[in-house]
Specification:
The protein has nine helices and twelve strands. By secondary structure, it is of the alpha/beta class.
Length: 363
């Protein structure tokens, strides 16, 4: 781990800490000279002799398992206007990783953030959606990054682990560059961006979905996704001190059209986006499926007047791909209730990153 996931202080500003119950030094970052070598030449607590397994940032106190720094890591920032579905996507994406994907690849999610990650995920994401049966409430507070390790036990990747650091932000913080520079520093510290768009942010789908209803469905706060994209690009360039717009941003971007279940009636009968993901049929990803869905999503956005949006994505980012997905598989009821959670292609953007990072193969 090169830096703290929360405050982005250099790794050198982190210290090891004891986590043994009832130890007087538990939770206190030790100076390097205090950590004593044990019998196996692993650092131990000078107070109780227990193995030191926790790393704590001396700047902000953020802690992770010591093992977290030894893995390949994907740090992903979710970007999107209020109502675009960031929190619902994060909730179902993590749930699906531990479900069908885990069974297919022999993988399991391990919370490297310990109780902090588990309690935050349960309180904000899992409990509302999977226990209370309501849509995940919009994020209205500053949230610590969720840190996990995806540990593989299947034949293809046995013994391999991929660290995941996920950043969810309140949609209101994306309203201006000033707010983004204050609350979304994770953007230029991330290794990838998930850029979420509700189809209703484009006039044509908004009008189509509003027909036949007494009251049109409410659109997210930010109607023009291009404005948010440009703010995102400006912030990343400033954060990385990049000069010259001819130099592309180093991290890949996955543009995600969310709530695609609302658009199924308007899609062609041969639509790839309406079909279940082919990546969860066998322990091998489908390059053809990635390509087909990418082309179809780009075509949709262009037909909705988003040609310039696509041009900005292609000209500013080194790698990009477009996806259509539904985190819930259906729209919430009048009281935000969800009768059945049925994610559709919600893992596709993450699987694409794993493919590009050579964690998973295509065939």
């Amino acid at each position: 781990m090169k830096e703290c996931p929360r405050c982005f202080a250099p790794a050198e500003r982190a210290g090891l800490s004891c986590s043994a119950p009832h130890c007087g030094r538990a939770g206190i970052p030790l100076e390097d000279a205090e950590a004593l070598p044990g019998a196996g030449k692993k650092p131990v607590c000078p107070a109780c002799g227990s193995r030191l397994t926790v790393r704590i940032c001396r700047e902000c106190g953020f802690s992770t398992d010591l093992s977290a720094g030894a893995k390949e890591t994907l740090s992903i920032s979710l970007v999107g206007a209020t109502g675009s579905g960031k929190s619902c996507m994060l909730a179902t994406m993590l749930h699906e990783l531990g479900g069908d994907f885990g069974r297919l690849h022999g993988a399991a999610l391990y919370p490297t953030g310990g109780d902090r990650t588990m309690s935050q995920y349960e309180r904000l994401y899992h409990t509302p959606l999977y226990e209370q049966g309501i849509c995940v409430p919009a994020t209205d507070e500053e949230i610590d990054p969720l840190t996990w390790a995806l540990v593989f036990g299947g034949q293809e990747n046995a013994g391999r682990a991929l660290g995941l650091t996920l950043y969810d932000s309140c949609g209101a913080t994306f309203k201006s560059e000033q707010q983004m520079s204050r609350y979304n520093r994770s953007l230029y510290h991330s290794s990838a961006i998930f850029f979420l768009i509700d189809p209703r942010q484009f006039p044509a789908p908004r009008e189509a979905l509003g027909k036949g209803r007494r009251k049109k469905t409410a659109a997210p706060v930010e109607d023009n996704p291009q404005k948010l994209l440009l703010r995102t690009i400006h912030l990343i360039r400033a954060g990385l001190s990049m000069e010259g717009v001819d130099k592309k941003l180093p991290m890949p971007i996955a543009v995600c059209l969310t709530k695609m279940d609302t658009m199924f009636p308007f899609l062609d009968k041969a639509s790839f986006l309406a079909d279940p993901s082919r990546h969860l049929r066998r322990p091998m990803l489908s390059a053809t499926d990635f390509s087909s869905c990418d082309l179809e999503t780009r075509s949709l956005i262009e037909s909705w007047g988003g040609r310039e949006f696509i041009a900005h994505v292609e000209s500013q980012f080194t790698k990009s791909a477009f996806f259509g997905l539904s985190s819930l598989g259906g729209q919430p009821g009048s009281r935000n209730e969800i009768l059945r959670v049925a994610p559709h292609r919600v893992l596709d953007p993450l699987l694409w990153l794993m493919w590009k990072g050579q964690v998973l193969k295509t065939g």
